[in-house]
Amino acid sequence: MSRTEGSAFALEPFLQAERARVEKALARSLERLLPFLAPRIRSAARDGTTTGGKRLRPILCMAAYEVAGGTDRRGVEDLAVSLELIHAYSLMHDDLPCMDDAPLRRGQPTPHTIHGEAATVVAGAALIPAAHLQAWRAAQAMGLGERTARSLVDTLALASGAAGMVGGQGLDLMGEGAALSAPELDRLHRKKTGALLTASLRMGGLAAQASPTLLDALEDYGRGVGLAFQIADDVLDATSDAEALGKAPSDAALDKSTYVTLFGVDGARARAEELADRAQASLARAGLQAPALDALARHVVARAR
Ligand code: GRG
Predict the structure, then answer these.
(1) CA 1 to ligand 1 centroid distance, Å
(2) Is the pLDDT of residue 1 over 50?
């Protein structure tokens, strides 16, 4: 589908409705988890998961599920929340003083500035196994069978661990102060940001029992959108002030290599657009009619315009 056709989709109402689905499922999940935690840790976990956020990963998962023919709306909401739990922990830990040392995110004080570092580390750590349990239980409740349930948990664990997000975070830490090449930067971000976004699409497809061809197309889309999303993030960090970002721009202060340092703002934007085009093309090649995913790909890069 071309850019113009994609833009005919009413994205804002869609995002609003999908976010509401995620918020409800997240509340169900937290209701089960939070009572186990001591009060300060509970508050850190609650703040880390419920203070804003675009909920992009669960929304992508639900959209992939629905485009692949899945019909269990409540089931996929519960499954998709597992991705948000991992994402939330990663941000809580990423903002700690020993990492990016960020006092603000989404325009709000970060959990460690209110509840302390130790409580935030523990709260974030509690979300990791909770996420995997969440995915496992959702798969059971959807009646997906042992094999698919295992693939779902496997996909989440691979994407969030050493081969994915945590591995990428390690490369990022080690890369501070170094001038990374474009392939090195791609590798880092395919892991740090791309892996979980790609897993979101794959998990949606798996839950809908999509064919291998369809799964490949969804993953291809996820890889393109994942990298485009990171490039847009770099452009935003370089071009926005703290008020617009909801946090202090940090890349230059941390002396990080970014797509903007490599290609300039216009070059980075062009690269993000091209990746979004390619993501849409992967779906079209597989014969998928996916207006929501098309519009989401455009939305991801439009943030940086
Ligand atoms: C083991 C301490 C420790 C950390 C390892 C922190 C971590 C795990 C990984 C961090 C990776 C990371 C922060 C990736 C996120 C990159 C990114 C672009 C985040 C912003 O995502 P959005 O825009 O956030 O979707 P919202 O606010 O919408 O939820």
Answers:
(1) 30
(2) no
For residue 160, how far is its CA from the centre of ligand 1 (angstroms)? 11
pLDDT digits (tens, 9 = 90+) for 268-293: 999 999 999 999 999 999 999 899 99
Q: How many CA atoms lie within 13 Å of 8's alpha carbon, on the beta-carbon side?
A: 6
pTM of the model: 0.95
Residue 144 corresponds to which tokens in the numbers above?
């997906």
Our answer on whether the CB atom of 169 is closer than 6 Å to any ligand 1 atom is yes
Give the mean pLDDT of 152-161. Answer: 98
Ligand 1 pocket member 32 (CB < 6 A): no
Separation of alpha carbons 304 and 197, rounded Å: 18
CA Rg value for the chain: 18
Asked which of 54-58, 60-64, 254-258 is least confident by mean pLDDT, the reply is 254-258
Q: How far is CA 104 from CA 55, 169, 305, in A?
A: 18, 19, 23
* Whether the CB of 90 sits within 6 Å of ligand 1: yes
Q: Is the CB of 298 under 6 A from ligand 1?
A: no
Q: Which helix (H) or strand (E) holds 295?
A: helix 291-302
Q: Which of 55, 81, 89, 91 to mutate to test the pocket of ligand 1 (most atoms within 8 A of CB)?
A: 91
List pLDDT tens digits, range 102-154. 999 999 999 999 999 999 999 999 999 999 999 999 999 999 999 999 999 99
Any idea which residue has 């014969």 for tokens? 287
Q: Ligand 1 mean position to 4 CA, how many Å?
A: 31
Distance CA(265)–CA(236), nearest Å, equals 9
Best CA proximity match to 115, nearest among 50, 51, 53, 42: 42
Q: Is the CB of 165 under 6 A from ligand 1?
A: yes
Ligand 1 atom 23, closest CA: 54
Query: If pLDDT is split at 50, 70 and 90, which confidence band does 38 have?
Result: very high
